[in-house]
Amino acid sequence: MDPKQKQFSIWYVFIALWAIMLFQMFVTPFFVPTEIPYSEFKAAVAAGRVEEVSVSSTVIHGRMKPEAPPSGETASPVKEGRVFETVRVEDPDLIRDLEKHHVKVTGVIQSTFLRDLLSWVVPIALFFAVWLFLLRRMGQGQGGFMTVGRSKAKIYMEKEVKVTFADAAGVDEAKAELQEVIEFLKTPEKFSRLGGKIPKGILLVGPPGTGKTLLAKAVAGEAGVPFFSISGSEFVEMFVGVGAARVRDLFLQAKEKAPCIIFIDELDALGKARGIGPMAHEEREQTLNQLLVEMDGFDPRVGVLLMAATNRPEILDPALLRAGRFDRHVLVDRPDKIGRVAILKLHARAVPLESEADLEVIAAMTAGFVGADLANIINEAALLAVRRGKDTVGLAELQEAVERVIAGLEKKNRVLNQKEKERVAHHEVGHALVTLSIPGVDAVQKISIIPRGIAALGYTLQLPTEDRFLMTKSELENKIAVLLGGRVSEEIIYHEVSTGAQDDLLKATDIAKSMVKLYGMSEKLGQISFERERQPLFLQSGQPPAPGDYSEETSREIDCEVRRIIDEQYGRVSSLLEKQQGLLREAATVLLGKETISGDELKRIIAKSAASV
Ligand code: ADP
Ligand code: ZN
Q1: What is the mean pLDDT of residues 73-100?
Q2: Which of 214, 265, 341, 452 to mutate to test the pocket of ligand 1 (most atoms within 8 A of CB)?
Q3: What span, in angstroms and rounded, lies between the C-alpha atoms of 506 and 520?
Q4: Strands of 221-344, DSSP E
Q5: Who has the most CB within 10 Å: 22, 53, 248, 576?
Q6: What is the CA radius of gyration of the chain?
Q7: CA gap 334, 90 in Å, rounded
Q8: Counting atoms of ligand 1 from 1, which one is nearest the CA of 335?
């Protein structure tokens, strides 16, 4: 799961020792003679096991026959085919015995050079090879083995940041949310005196390449404060304790330079929920704990603002999201068409274009692209124009650049074709119409068919606060209804469902299960809670939850009840959407054209369609 878990492990030493042992056991005996007592040698000769010997004045070298004698097994330590040596003692019968048992007497059986080589040099060389390999691995990513412990902190500090909000486009909502923070950084004292709520940690959430780093930097640039940055994944490759020391270091340095911004990229690499993953990672946990300690320990009034970026908020340790830590979340979403035009224009500033209008065409082609992709397109197009010896970049180059970038992206499955888009549009409108049709559900903010890698984003961000609220049975049922809206809508329009609703179904089932098993909301099963409060599905550590203490009978009843709840809501949503089929199609068409529509726009569409009937 985590490719960066390359820490030194004691197991490497064990493996190396084991390899040497195997070598000694199975390879060496064929070349390196085993020393045996003379008596044993005589016994072996008498048993007819010896193939050949060479006799000098002081020692006898010999080799066993390759096959065992028919007479059966011997207790000798020298196995068949192996070489041995023994001291030569005064024995007048030696030659006679050798002749009697047809042992070949030859000159040299084994040079001592080869023997020394095999018994000493090879194992030692092997050992050093393994050792070097280990050093190399441990040294990766931190400037060599020897620098470990000196905390060669790769903290990047920019004293004067040149980036400003003008360098980021299509992220107006995020900019607006960050505006207040800039005020704070400019004059921390004044800000707190006037009673502004002082932010401590801001989490930028969004897919890769949407400009999270850019925005964090721009905040520093706008406020004119230093910018410290470090990447979460860099903590993970270190020895235990080093990451924590680095965090301490980082905060010390930052406090000296306050007001300033500390930016942690890839927070998820470091802030994964503790205990998740194939092995609990002690180094990461220590580093995470240190980060929490530092966050709790500093007074925000000194003017140190912590910012972090992640594209996987759902795997973060809940402790990180608690009040007083990263409690402010700013969504940095994929840009809509207008945003894409703005980003393209921004990056095309330094590129001579044939016509500005071309960028609109390109923006229309690139639903789902993030800022980094769009910057890439302009870049590719400029290169293409140069290669063709043109002075300006035209639509042809831009289009070809889009194709190239799409080819790169398609592997990541982010670009929908027209048919898929239509289906997604109906699916999403389905959710939205159900939301608007039943009272007491969170209002629709925005519907979008811009594909996003992190489908569960909106939901996930609510999570930490959600647990604190009471929810009634009908509210939970409404939630299920909204979740089913997408699938029902597909069913009505296409008479066939798709895989697109998997995530919805998972969540709906989860809610229904909780209703039955935790909250005693099933009349059939009564006011019994069958399980302890579970952590949300994705926070559970590897092992399956302990089985509840109820009978198989009950378990079957629970399943039935869960199914009943879902089925009931499915029926309810079906009849709801059936009646609004015309509206459903109408709104989906608008959505297809615009890619994103706000809740208000949807309400207007509804009002218009109601008026025309
Ligand atoms: P993230 O941190 O979200 O992965 P980055 O901030 O590293 O994304 O963005 C990478 C590059 O893509 C930026 O340096 C910039 O050139 C371009 N880019 C991304 N988003 C935007 C945007 N909203 N406006 C302008 N350029 C952007
Ligand atoms: Zn859905």
Answers
A1: 78
A2: 214
A3: 20
A4: 227-231, 260-265, 304-310, 328-331
A5: 53
A6: 36
A7: 93
A8: 23
Structure tokens at 200: 């401590």
- Ligand approaching nearest to the C-alpha of 428: 2
**Edge-to-edge strand ranges of the sheet holding 59-64:** 34-35, 83-87, 59-64, 50-55, 104-105
CATH topology of domain 418-612: Methane Monooxygenase Hydroxylase; Chain G, domain 1 (1.20.58)
Helix (H) or strand (E) holding 608: helix 599-612
Q: How far is the CA of 217 from the centre of ligand 1 (A)?
A: 11
Q: How confident is the model at residue 114 (pLDDT cuts 50, 70, 90)?
A: low
Nearest ligand, measured from the Cα of 503: 2
CA distance 204 to 213: 9
Pocket lining: 212 vs ligand 1, CB cutoff 6 Å: yes
Establish whether residue 331 lines the binding site of ligand 1, counting it when its CB lies within 6 angstroms of any ligand atom: no
The verdict on domain 337-407 having CATH code 3.20.20.370 is: no
Q: What is the DSSP letter of 534?
A: P
Q: What is the pLDDT of residue 552?
A: 84
CATH number of 154-331: 3.40.50.300
Q: Which of 17-21, 281-285, 346-350, 519-523 has the highest mean pLDDT?
A: 346-350
**Distance set, CA 37 to CA 28, 33, 64 (Å):** 20, 13, 15
Give the Cα separation of 235 and 215 in Å (integer).
23
Average pLDDT score over the chain? 78
- For residue 482, give the ligand nearest its CA: 2
| CA 299, 304, 305, 306 torsion-angle sign | negative
Q: Does the global pTM surpass 0.70?
A: no
Helix (H, G, I), strand (E, B) or coil at 448: strand
Using an 8 Å Cβ cutoff, are 332 and 155 in contact? no
- From the alpha carbon of 309, which atom of ligand 1 is closest? 2
* Residue 140 DSSP class: T
Q: Is 310 helix (H, G, I), strand (E, B) or coil?
A: strand
- Whether 428 sits among the annotated catalytic residues: the reply is yes
As a whole number, mean pLDDT of residues 287-307 equals 84
Token pair listed for 596: 């994103």
Q: How far is the CA of 420 from the centre of ligand 2 (A)?
A: 13
> Which residue in this structure is represented by tokens 């099933």?
522
Average pLDDT estimate for 361-378: 88
pLDDT digits (tens, 9 = 90+) for 488-532: 999 999 998 888 788 889 889 988 988 888 888 888 887 777 765
Q: How far is the CA of 211 from the centre of ligand 1 (A)?
A: 3
What is the tens place of the pLDDT at every residue in 377-410? 999 999 999 988 988 999 989 988 888 887 666 5
Q: Tell me, what's the pLDDT at 465? A: 30
Residue pair 185/305 in contact by the 8 Å Cβ criterion: yes
CB-CB contact of 447 with 486 (8 Å): no
In the chain, what are the domain boundaries? 154-331, 337-407, 418-612
